[in-house]
Design goal:
Elements lengths: L1 H13 L3 H6 L1 E5 L4 E5 L3 H21 L28 H16 L9 H19 L4 H5 L5
Antiparallel strand pairs: 1-2
Helix pairs in contact: 3-5, 4-5
Bound molecules: heme C (HEC).
Heme C binds next to helix 3, helix 4, helix 5 and helix 6.
Amino acid sequence: MKVFLECLVVFLFLSCNSSEKVENKVTITDGTKTYDVYQASEMSTLMKGMYAYNMQLKTDIEAGNELSGEFPEEFLKIHSAELSETKLRNETFQYFSVKFIDVQRQVFKQDSMLSVKERYNSSINMCLSCHKTECTGPIPKIKKLLIK
Ligand code: HEC
């Protein structure tokens, strides 16, 4: 139980804000007890995938490995994935999503003048730029992706 609660606290901390999770709450009842289940939006699932993917890129770049993959086309879902009810696909979001896709693609460019580390950090800085506008909760976590 204690472990479960700790996980929940971490989860709430990492999301944009806790009120949004309340709106995504689904209550399951088994007759005697009720359980509140928090449903992640499509965007939130995509974001977690992007986080995990970039963590792997960081590991590879730091180890000096050649990047074997290509830009994950899956990331283009940022333009269409459903957001949590409290979040809007406004002009700012659209502006930063186009910019982000552009810089994340650059990471995989073979013929760039910039080092892979510089290109990678630019893409993470673009995650941060968008998050500063409306979703500040995950910022400390995203900063851990930066290569020093
Ligand atoms: C164009 C704006 C934008 C960009 C770029 C962006 N994010 Fe997000 N991110 C959001 C929004 C909005 C949410 C909230 C989604 C929701 O609740 O539906 C979010 C949610 C998240 C979450 C919380 C997921 C959860 O529910 O626990 C993480 C972690 C995250 N983003 C990491 C990243 C990382 C890593 C990158 C870059 C690789 C990135 N984001 C790029 C806007 C952005």
